[in-house]
Amino acid sequence: MRRSTIFGPGLASLALAAAIVPAAAQEAIDVTLGVLNDRSGTYADLSGEGSVVAARMAVEDFDAEGKGMNVEIVSADHQNKPDIGSNVARQWYDQDGVDVILDVPTSSVALAVADITADANKVFINSGAGSTELTRGQCRPTTVHWTYDTAALAKGTGSAITEAGGDTWFFLTADYAFGHSLEENTAEVVEEAGGQVMGEVRHPFPARDFSSYLLQAQGSGAKVIGLANAGGDTVNAIKQASEFGITQSGQQLAALLMFITDVHALGAETAQGLQLTEAFYWDQDDATRDWSARFEEMHGAKPTMVQAGVYSGVMKYLAAVEALGSAEDGEAVVAEMKAEPFDDPLFGEGYVRADGRVIHDMYLFEVKSPDESESEWDLYTQNAVIAGEEAWLPMLEECDFSQEAG
């Protein structure tokens, strides 16, 4: 586990600042943020240290010190393993005084952390995992699902490709909760649009050699190979599909979850023309460009939507803690987060629904060709906006925690 300096404006130590605050000053609110993610594996680029940087930026921009808050950030690598993630979460809550866990890519880990958080009456703000179960079958009053989920991804990319003529699909799926959810949600969208699912094959997570899986997909004759995976798995699958000449033979790849770091790693020459759905892109407007420039200066790369979601989630969380004057009661903090809508500089207007699903717009992008790209990170053209009220699954009655909160 890594423990960071306590951050405030200018990234100065709040511990030092507290030492010089007059004794008569109001007692500070102590808050510990825990960023739990993949720091060494297939999801490290899209989350990892960049999510810690985003959390630091949020504490600074919120002016936590000026508002009488002592904020500490700790981080740990869950290695994409539920048992490791669960052990870290329990230690953080039981021994280390962590009040909120952030990020947590890998849905199997996130679902475990959601249960542990509810039992401890702390707060879980997920940005990295995509399973819709976080606000459905395993919804909890202490969970906030901020950035994306598999239903929104399917709504964007799956609908667009099927309606454009890609009406037969074969899925290449990561064999764990996220991959299963993404395949299921996309298959439903494809079939609702009049398309047909011709088969699927599941690969271990993570994987390096996709040759046998891609050959099965090629042999299916489907027009579209849906990649229901993410991070390094998606990058490797696309590279190997290109090497095997699959895309040149007329089959289309659908990257159902892809991040700007993946596109950057592939390069526009390989990734050009791919359609993908995201919640955030650094070059959308002045606010996203300004924030992303600061992030890149600190981290050395443009932010992913996961890292942007960590920032926005921390901002909303700290506002709720300030309003309550305490971070002790997790259910009360989440209820406060749901009490008012937000107008976020990175995600626009939105709100936290009663089931913990954050409602905001999603966007359908297409990767530019090398000729269209004007700089290293100039990679997307925006093709469509998916309005927040249309992007997400409807709330289940049993996950409506508004009466409990009231």
UniProtKB/TrEMBL annotation:
Pfam families cross-referenced by the UniProt entry: Peripla_BP_6
Keyword Signal: yes
Annotated ranges, domain Leucine-binding protein: 31-368
The entry's keywords: Amino-acid transport, Signal, Transport
Gene3D superfamilies from the UniProt entry: 3.40.50.2300
Matches recorded under InterPro entries: BCAA_transport, Leu-bd, Peripla_BP_I
GO BP terms in the entry: amino acid transport
Keyword Manganese in record: no
Leader peptide range in chain numbering: 1-25
PANTHER family: LEUCINE-SPECIFIC-BINDING PROTEIN (PTHR30483), PERIPLASMIC BINDING PROTEIN OF ABC TRANSPORTER FOR NATURAL AMINO ACIDS (PTHR30483:SF6)
Protein family according to the UniProt entry: Belongs to the leucine-binding protein family.
The protein, known as: Branched-chain amino acid transport system substrate-binding protein
